[in-house]
Write a structure and sequence with these properties.
By secondary structure, the protein is α+β, with helices and mostly antiparallel strands. It is built from two helices and nine strands.
Length: about 160
């Protein structure tokens, strides 16, 4: 409840805090726009509520759902887009792989893929203990090495 008595505004403490919170959010939005040049800023609030600020930095209400920006379709991410376990989802065919050490609780893999769109061949090598997923840091063809038929033969001959 807001009252004005003799030129003085009287508010309940909760309302004062609410107004101050709105001013802080407006200032934060203006600062984010100035610093980062973003069109709007989303701030996570309590209990899954998100606050949106307009391009001029003004507080623009609350909304319940934030849609994550779509990832670049040329990049792979997560287990579902792992080139070793789900090569077809990455536009690849796993042609050959072998573990150089064949030891328990670790991996030292060499893999050969064919890129289905171009027919080119790529090789990747990854190693680690049992904690990481093999090739989890491979996010695109740029993380692999393109190889020709001579290199493919050399890779296939390494196991024997």
């Amino acid at each position: 409840m807001v009252k004005k008595v003799d030129g003085v505004i009287i508010m309940e403490q909760a309302e004062v805090y609410g107004k101050l919170n709105d001013l802080i959010k407006q200032s934060a939005g203006q600062a984010m726009k100035k610093l980062f040049g973003v069109d709007f800023v989303v701030e996570a609030g309590k209990d899954g509520v998100f606050y949106k600020f307009t391009p001029n930095g003004n507080y623009d209400g609350e909304f319940d759902d934030v849609v994550e920006e779509p990832k670049d379709p040329s990049e792979w991410y997560g287990y579902e887009m792992n080139p070793y376990y789900n090569p077809e989802k990455c536009g690849l065919q796993l042609v050959y792989s072998y573990d150089r050490d064949d030891e328990p609780y670790q991996f030292n893999l060499v893999a050969l893929w064919k890129h289905l769109a171009t027919g080119k061949y790529y090789v990747g090598e990854d190693s680690g203990c049992s904690c990481p997923t093999p090739f989890e840091d491979f996010n695109s063809l740029a993380d692999m090495t393109e190889v020709d038929e001579h290199e493919i033969k050399r890779i296939l001959d390494q196991q024997y």
